[in-house]
Amino acid sequence: MPAITVKDVLVLPRLPQLDPATTRYRPVTRLVTAPSGYEGEGFPVRRAFAGVPMRELDPFIHLDQMGEVDYAPGEPKGTSWHPHRGFETVTYIIDGIFDHQDSNGGGGTITNGDTQWMTAGGGLLHIEAPPEHLVMSGGLFHGLQLWVNLPRVAKMSPPRYQDIRGKESILLTTPDGGALVRVIAGDIAGHRGPGSTHTPITISHVTVQPGAQVDLPWRTDFNALVYVLGGRGTVGTDRRPVHTGQLAVHGPGDAIRFTADEHQDGRTPELDVYIMGGEPIREPVAHYGPFVMNTREELIQAFEDYQAGRLGVIPATRVPHTGGQAPRP
Q1: Number of structural domains, the chain?
Q2: Which residue in 135, 213, 305, 329 has its CB near the most CB atoms, within 10 A?
Q3: Which residues form the Pirin C-terminal domain (predicted)?
Q4: φ and ψ of 132, to 5 deg
């Protein structure tokens, strides 16, 4: 998992040493294993939030781990042009290359450690696809796509696109240098990531060396979700075992604890986790296909607007379609 890294984590700013006497570590309230499946024409995904009630995910809606898969030549797949309204997509690439284009003029290519942050707002069309040279050559692909809800007042806001390079992420380490913390959005211990958000959230990718422990300060008004991208370890002060493809939902408190097992396998030599937290919106959610609204009537309106062409027009110059279908929850 290359993402973005450094040769020597000891040169990085360090997280504070937490006082166990005063720190309220968050308990693990739910542990689920993401079911594996295939999207479109054979794109492998893990549905990380499957089986978790929406109230425990709020303000998040959906999370797919895409891959990890080593494609043969001709195998890489993308999506067709498809609409979105009412939320944001956050696409984080760990290995591989992905192109994005939308009908609002946003777009670009992301690779190891980069993030594309698309605010659909009132609506647009977009496409995601591997570049043609990757389709021809094949290669390793691994990433995540997170859907972040928008509050009612922002659901019809103008669309926006953010291209966040991996090198822009804020890099931190633990007091003993046993982990690399990448802050993509939000704030951890006073260190703010580059992502600009409508909904107050924090997103981080943490790589933990075998045997190392991380005590991560976390806002008390945020929920806390820890998804295991790769490796084995434990979560919580009661050291509940976790492995690749599992999500740990945490209860209240002001810090998260997780530890990497001493012995990892050769394929995943470290523990990698993707951590999400945000201020719950606490509004009704009407979610169907590519739209996330507050009411059924708003969903119907979204479909009508899409069919009438009000969500945008496919640009004349566009990313070539490489197979697959629009992602759907």
Answers
A1: 1
A2: 135
A3: 205-311
A4: -60, -35
Q: What is the pTM of this model?
A: 0.93
Summarize pLDDT for 49-99 with one digit per residue, the tens: 999 999 999 999 999 998 888 888 877 777 788 999 999 999 999 998 888
Main-chain dihedrals φ then ψ at residue 157, nearest 5 degrees = -70, 160
211 within some domain: yes
**What whole-number distance in Å separates Cα of residue 6 and Cα of residue 128?**
29
Quote the CA–CA distance of 34 and 18 in Å, as a whole number. 31
> What average pLDDT score do residues 304-326 get?
73
Neighbours of 222 (CB within 10 A): 18
CB count in 10 Å sphere of residue 115: 26
Residue 305, phi then psi, degrees to nearest 5: -65, -40
Residue from 278, 301, 312 nearest 149 by CA: 278
Q: What is the CATH number of the domain that holds 262?
A: 2.60.120.10
- Kindly state whether residue 3 falls inside one of the protein's structural domains: no
Domain interval for residue 211 = 9-307
Burial tier of 324 (Cβ tally within 10 Å: 0-12, 13-18, 19+)? buried
